[in-house]
Amino acid sequence: MGRILVVDDNDLVRATTRAILEGVGHHVEDAADGDVALRALDSANPDLVLTDIVMPNKEGIGLIVELRRLGYKGSIVAMSGGGKIGPSDLLVMARKLGADECLAKPFHRADLLAKVGALLSRAPQ
User: Fold this and answer.
1) Spatial distance between the Cα atoms of 10 and 73, rounded to a whole number of angstroms
2) Mean pLDDT, contiguous 10-residue spans, the chain (125 residues)
3) Right CATH for 3-118 from 3.40.50.2300, 3.40.50.300, 1.10.287.610, 3.30.565.10
4) Domain map (residue ranges) of the chain
5) Against a cut of 0.90, is the pTM above it?
């Protein structure tokens, strides 16, 4: 199973996502925003980062760009329920800037697990 860093400013989303992923055997760390995620990156050593887009402090687009600039080779899943320009626009932007997959919120458990499973199965062992 994989090591996953879940980044979202909503406590309930983080807790629910963690429960879903740990329920199938993944090791999960979480962070409330992109700044906290960057500080946790070395200790968490994630195979996959699952990040919200709209957050205070360092938002998801900035986190994705920074992860790729730092040479992070793991997978990134961007998720968004909206914002000023709409969830699909934000997710398209995230994909262009380095996210491997996108997930619109609210998402279904099966969709989350399918995307995470597919990306982790492609990762070099």
Assistant:
1) 26
2) 96 97 98 96 95 92 96 95 64 92 92 97 71
3) 3.40.50.2300
4) 3-118
5) yes
